[in-house]
């Protein structure tokens, strides 16, 4: 059944006339008559009593209920997708989010809770993976948006910085001075798997100290990394705000990265990334608003740590 036919059927039922229905829908009466006849052929039942006024048969009453539901759903979906940022009705659907584990652990819970409070009809799916994996998932259409380290290098993706993190060296005991190259060569770094941007900065930091082959042990999960650092297995490079938030759970300590190179490597922007704006769903628009992201610019209103931690 075509929506156009159902709309004509509804108009005839409401007006009691083929002619009036044709006027309301800006078409000719013969077109309305043809669509009603087609509907009757499709459902295999008479839908209207051709009297004056025209009125629906019992089968017509049944179809009218479903027709109104389908037309209302169609009109609501069309209004949302054409002007999602100005949607008046409730926003529904699934929002598929990708995130680095550190961002998911520290920043996202209060923001997702706020989104859920404002739009309870949105269902959330969160997938945690390194930056490189998220970009692959986003371009393949398996997630709607992502939180990655830095802007997306691909020209078909749009990026907005939303958080700024300071990376620090994490150890199992207080450090009076930054470890030497010999100290690092005798130890290991505990990190996420290949593709993690923090891992890349470990390699850059070690290269700046003349260490060409740094030993990195992949542990995969944040709690495992912090637990193993606390147990004295090695060092880690993590965001300062995250380490401070986890110090009650793990006996770890941190030190800022020294020198010009260290300071350049320490500060990283976490960006909200998504595909073409024309393809955004109402749920993505709603989430961008919570984040303070203006889809029409490359700027965003940074989310205060108190609101996102």
From TrEMBL:
SUPFAM superfamilies: Periplasmic binding protein-like II (SSF53850), Winged helix' DNA-binding domain (SSF46785)
Top-level division of the source organism's lineage: Bacteria
Residues of the HTH lysR-type domain: 1-57
Pfam families (alphabetical): HTH_1 (PF00126), LysR_substrate (PF03466)
Keywords assigned by UniProt, alphabetized: DNA-binding, Transcription, Transcription regulation
UniProt xrefs under InterPro entries: LysR_HTH_N, LysR_subst-bd, WH-like_DNA-bd_sf, WH_DNA-bd_sf
Segments crossing the lipid bilayer: none
UniProt similarity note: Belongs to the LysR transcriptional regulatory family.
The protein's name: LysR substrate-binding domain-containing protein
Organism: Comamonas resistens
């Amino acid at each position: 059944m075509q929506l156009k036919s159902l709309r004509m059927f509804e108009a005839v039922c409401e007006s009691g006339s083929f002619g009036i229905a044709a006027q309301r829908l800006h078409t000719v009466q013969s077109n309305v008559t043809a669509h009603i006849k087609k509907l009757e052929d499709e459902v295999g039942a008479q839908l209207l009593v051709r009297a004056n006024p025209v009125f629906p048969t019992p089968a017509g009453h049944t179809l009218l209920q479903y027709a109104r539901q389908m037309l209302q759903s169609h009109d609501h979906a069309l209004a949302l997708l054409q002007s999602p940022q100005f949607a008046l009705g409730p926003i529904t659907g699934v929002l598929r989010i990708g995130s680095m584990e550190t961002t998911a652990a520290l920043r996202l819970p209060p923001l997702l809770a706020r989104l859920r409070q404002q739009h309870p009809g949105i269902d959330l799916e969160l997938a945690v993976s390194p930056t490189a994996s998220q970009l692959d998932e986003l371009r393949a259409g398996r997630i709607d948006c992502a939180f990655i380290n830095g802007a997306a290098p691909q020209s078909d993706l749009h990026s907005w910085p939303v958080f700024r993190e300071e990376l620090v060296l994490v150890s199992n005991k207080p450090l009076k001075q930054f470890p030497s190259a010999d100290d690092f060569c005798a130890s290991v770094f505990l990190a996420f798997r290949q593709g993690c941007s923090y891992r890349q900065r470990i390699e850059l930091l070690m290269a700046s100290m003349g260490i060409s082959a740094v030993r990195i042990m992949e542990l995969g999960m944040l709690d495992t990394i912090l637990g193993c650092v606390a147990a004295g297995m090695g060092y880690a490079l993590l965001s300062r705000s995250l380490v401070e938030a986890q110090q009650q759970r793990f006996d770890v300590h941190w030190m800022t990265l020294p020198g010009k190179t260290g300071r350049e490597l320490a500060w990283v922007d976490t960006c909200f990334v998504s595909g073409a704006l024309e393809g955004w769903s109402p749920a993505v628009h709603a989430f961008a608003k919570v984040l303070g992201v203006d889809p029409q610019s490359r700027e965003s209103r940074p989310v205060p740590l108190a609101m996102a931690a």
